[in-house]
């Protein structure tokens, strides 16, 4: 792999990640951020992945990371079926390269990455490999069909998995009162004096 190609893939990871209550769970599974075909992605796994990726991918939102963690196994299956599978060592190499670019040689090369961060890198490599195929459109269609057929349940705390294959941020229910209450002074207004 050349440096030029690695940097390009680093940008793909950044684009994927950027595009992209422990008490509340999915289907009665406490601590689940999402459940995909019976496979649980825990809130702890998601938080660790977010923490590991945030210093090297500015703007990486929790919903983006979760969306990738949800669909990564499917992307890997399609890539393997197309003969362009990826592995953990390639993912580690990509993350370290991006970390060195973002944080410098000393700090970036010393970074360790857990399963969630590796999943994001594997996804990025698989998607990039599929896009480079002569049959890229057919592979993309197959990927989208498999994702659509998957049983995906996202913890409402993190949002909702959409037809665009993304996790949309949660919406605030209409019954939630903004901080300060309904009669809070407008921003910049002088608050009323407190009663004596």
From TrEMBL:
Q: Where is the composition biased (Low complexity)?
A: 184-196
Keywords for the protein's UniProt record, in alphabetical order: Signal
InterPro entries named among the record's database cross-references: Trigger_fact/SurA_dom_sf
Domain of life (superkingdom): Bacteria
Record region (Disordered):
170-196
Q: Report the leader peptide range.
A: 1-32
This one is known as: SurA N-terminal domain-containing protein
Question: Could you tell me which species this protein originates from?
Answer: Cellulomonas xiejunii
């Amino acid at each position: 792999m050349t440096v030029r190609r690695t940097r390009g893939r680093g940008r793909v990871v950044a684009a994927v990640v950027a595009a992209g209550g422990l008490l509340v769970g999915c289907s009665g599974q406490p601590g689940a951020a999402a459940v995909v075909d019976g496979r649980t992605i825990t809130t702890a796994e998601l938080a660790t992945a977010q923490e590991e990726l945030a210093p090297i991918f500015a703007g990486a939102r929790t919903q983006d990371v979760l969306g990738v963690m949800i669909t990564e196994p499917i992307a890997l299956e399609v890539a393997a079926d197309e003969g362009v599978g990826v592995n953990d060592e390639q993912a580690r190499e990509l993350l370290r390269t991006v970390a060195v670019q973002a944080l410098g040689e000393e700090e970036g090369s010393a970074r360790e990455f857990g399963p969630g961060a590796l999943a994001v890198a594997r996804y990025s490599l698989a998607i990039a490999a599929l896009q480079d195929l002569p049959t890229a459109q057919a592979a993309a269609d197959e990927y989208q069909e498999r994702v659509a057929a998957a049983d995906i349940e996202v913890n409402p705390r993190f949002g909702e998995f959409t037809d665009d294959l993304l996790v949309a941020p949660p919406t605030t229910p209409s019954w939630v009162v903004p901080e300060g209450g309904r009669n809070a002074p407008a921003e910049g207004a002088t608050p009323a004096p407190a009663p004596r």
